[in-house]
Specification:
Elements lengths: L9 E6 L3 E7 L5 E8 L3 E3 L2 E3 L2 H23 L8 E6 L5 E3 L18 H11 L8 H10 L10 E3 L1 H10 L6 H4 L5 E2 L3 E2 L1 H13 L6 H4 L15 H7 L15 E2 H8 L7 E6 L3 E7 L11 E4 L5 E7 L4 H16 L6 H12 L9 E5 L14 E5 L7 H25 L6 E5 L9 H9 L3 E4 L5 H15 L5 H9 L5 E4 L3 H16 L1 H11 L2
Parallel strand pairs: 1-6, 6-11, 12-18, 18-19
Antiparallel strand pairs: 1-2, 2-3, 4-5, 7-8, 9-10, 12-13, 13-15, 14-15, 16-17, 19-20
Helix pairs in contact: 2-3, 9-14, 10-12, 11-12, 12-13, 13-16
Length: about 525
């Protein structure tokens, strides 16, 4: 006998760096079922990019996977929803002309060639403008006099673009907007910076007015358009989903990470770890000084957030798993990736030796925290040590977390303190391993909840559900009183041995950065 499918359903879709995932929840935030579509970025003509046609196709395939799972579990076909929300990896550049035609392939956050112009913008504004921000990519194109500049009508993020394709409504949420252009008081694009940026554009002979091309900001929970007939067929190629379903504002993956871990209170922090890793730490006010390694963004409801964003996290670890899998296949042994991950991650915790003479860099791309423009994967050791699988995997875990740790060191040196640091992301699927290594890497206790591995799409679904509650609750109260009131969490504390090993690893890691930088420059030639 099939289970009863609730009447009120809310959908969140998140386009992550390796998976498009959707989560269907009920009116109390319970996760009912998920859908998934795997995809990857490509390096094309000097740019990290995703095919936006594939993005739209992937959104549809992800929804069809969800619909199939719902039919199997509940014996009922999905035809309607109460509210939908779209989230995606932040930053990068998508530009369209007045006829909604793409002017250049999507330029993702992973591109680091914008570092020089980002430095210039930061200096001119006295506000950190990271290399991956939309403004940096746009300014880079203007400085290089790229021919599409004079035709720009709309500047979008990935979430904003997909939202528009589904609803015909051009808009953006506060968190995603704050990774496009600095906000003032968490409400609007900062008019002081708009004036300065327009002046910079003008000096380069460009008449573009930045405010005219940025997506309008819509408060979280409010209506942000409805599913169009064309959008309904994109989302559900079978044609079963009815148009007219309300949408909330599209948001960035930082927002969904904060929401899915209940980390939007002042002095709380949220760590999202996958192909990249970033930490979002909610502040009561702007820091007194700005650091190039620290982004200032906003929560979905407009609070100030200090973000440590690192381009690289689990890619090196994933490659190790692929290498082990390929080796096993050569011997006719077949294991799932989950089995391999669980085995090798647990083995890493057994290592008791030294990491003084081993260094690992997992730089699939450049890394802004350590100011490396061109990435190169590297495992190197002296003749005073040898390799073992537990040692290599532990070093890969440390390499996944060290750049975030370096950024957090900057915030601590500013005198900032945090009461609760929550973590989520695929790297934390194996219980008690990456969590313990991460806690030891930042020397802080961390909090993990039951949604730690799949928080993004669920977090966006919670923002879609907030459309139902926003008249009666602030976002913070809604999360505390409705969603997380009975949530069970686990706490991981730093481990003495892992802290010692991490500090050994950190010394070697920092001392060899020049070698990594040179390798990144040479290996791409």
């Amino acid at each position: 006998m099939e289970k009863l499918l609730p009447e009120n359903l809310y959908l969140g879709i998140e386009l992550g760096s390796t998976r498009i995932k959707c989560a269907l929840i009920d009116e109390f935030g319970n996760n009912l079922e998920n859908g998934v579509f795997n995809w990857e970025n490509t390096y094309l003509d000097g740019n990290w990019t995703y095919d936006l046609n594939q993005a739209l196709y992937g959104v549809g395939q992800c929804y069809l996977d969800l619909k199939k799972n719902i039919l199997l579990k509940y014996g009922k076909k999905l035809t309607s929803l109460k509210t939908i929300g779209i989230s995606a990896m932040m930053h990068g550049l998508i530009v369209e002309d007045e006829n909604n035609r793409l002017l250049t392939p999507f330029r993702t956050w992973r591109n680091t060639y914008t570092e020089e112009v980002a430095n210039e913008l930061s200096s001119e504004l006295n506000f950190n403008i990271p290399a991956r921000w939309t403004l940096s990519h746009l300014y880079y194109a203007i400085k290089n006099k790229e021919p599409f500049i004079e035709h720009i009508s709309k500047v979008s993020t990935l979430a904003s673009y997909i939202h528009k394709k589904l609803t015909n409504t051009y808009c953006i949420g506060k968190d995603d907007a704050s990774g496009v252009f600095p906000l003032e008081n968490g409400k609007t694009y900062n008019p002081k910076y708009i004036k300065k940026v327009d002046s910079l554009f003008s000096k380069l002979g460009c008449n573009l007015k930045i405010e005219n091309v940025l997506p309008p900001i819509i408060d979280c929970g409010l209506n942000a358009g409805a599913l169009s007939p064309e959008g309904a067929l994109i989302l559900d190629p079978d044609g079963d989903l009815v148009p007219g379903i309300p949408f909330v504002a599209p948001e960035g993956d930082a927002a969904t990470g904060m929401v899915s871990t209940n980390a939007i209170k002042v002095k709380s922090g949220n760590i999202s770890a996958g192909t990249s890793i970033f930490g979002s730490f909610v502040l009561s006010e702007l820091p007194k000084t700005f650091h190039r390694e620290i982004d200032i963004v906003n929560t979905p409801d407009g609070k100030v957030v200090a973000m440590v964003h690192c381009n690289n996290c689990s890619s090196g670890l994933n490659e190790c798993v692929s290498l082990i899998n390929d080796t096993l296949h050569k011997f006719g042994v077949w294991k799932s990736e989950n089995e391999i991950f669980e085995t090798i991650l647990n083995s890493a915790l057994t290592y008791k030796g030294s990491l003084k003479h081993l260094v690992t860099y997992n730089y699939l791309s450049g890394e802004n925290i350590t100011h490396i423009q061109d990435g190169a994967m590297l495992i190197a050791h002296s003749n005073e040590t040898s390799l073992s699988i537990d040692k290599v995997i532990l070093s890969q875990l440390f390499s996944s977390f060290i750049t975030l740790s370096l950024g957090l060191d900057i915030l601590k040196n500013e005198g900032l303190e945090f009461n609760d640091i929550y973590v989520h992301g695929g790297i934390f699927k194996t219980k008690g391993v990456a969590q313990k290594v991460f806690a030891s890497s930042i020397d802080e206790k961390i909090i993990v909840n039951s949604e730690a591995a799949e928080g993004g799409a669920w977090g966006m679904a919670l923002l879609a559900l907030y459309h139902h509650y926003q008249k009666d609750y602030s976002l913070e109260d809604y999360l505390m009183k409705i969603i997380f009131k009975d949530t069970k969490t686990t706490i991981e504390y730093p481990d003495t041995n892992l802290k010692k090993l991490f500090n050994q690893f950190k010394v070697t890691y920092l001392s060899c950065l020049e070698a990594e930088k040179l390798l990144g420059e040479k290996i791409k030639c």
